[in-house]
Fold this protein.
Amino acid sequence: MKMIERNKTAEAAALLIHPMLSSAEGIELCVTRFWGDSVHCFLPDLSSHGAAAGETYHSAWEEAKAIHDYLVEQNCTHLQLGFGASLGGVVLFELLKFEDLTFDHIFFEGVSFYERAPLLCFMLTRVFLSKHRKAVKDPELSRRKMSEIYGETAGPAMAKRFIAVNETSIRNIIHDCAYVDLPDLAPEMQKRCVFAYGEKDSDLKQCKKLLPAKYPEAKLGIWPGYAHCGRMTADSEKYAAMLRSIMTDEAE
């Protein structure tokens, strides 16, 4: 993990953890560039992504521990917002186990609720490894496909990261998203949590199934017309404004 910081003198602080194949730079393009300099942003590049592209991703716990240790070293253990998208949300789940970190608001985008899904893990690993090998052979095709899904701003960079990621990291990432360790959260902590999904996100069904029992005090948001993490890239300015309003307690 490599941490990027922005606006270190700002009073408010936020931690934003990117999804698979994105990066700290991707979060800046989709979210924090619209915030100006009013928020001290902690933007980790998870292992095998961005500035940490040369590092192999081993586990969500290892990434969370590295983020936790960095925040403690910087004496920033209370943040107004904790945000995690997809893989970043799995890492954020692990981060919530550290009792010395506190968040006023917690926002999960497209996070997996699969606690034990061996068949899903097997299938997705095969699919992602196959697509990865094709991307390595034909980078331009990968760029076009990623751009069709995530747009010309995010797509090309995601394709480049997909080509660069190693197969061990892919296997470990898929495993973590199929074997999520959902933490126990006190009711007061649950009230601070929002779980959001595009209505076409395949992870939404599992969240609907488990959320009422696991986190009954949390909120569920559904983005009409969007797929997995789709609103972040397609409607970035409004998405960023929505997160900013939550962080400042201005959301309805």
Q: What stands out?
A: The chain has a mean pLDDT of 93.
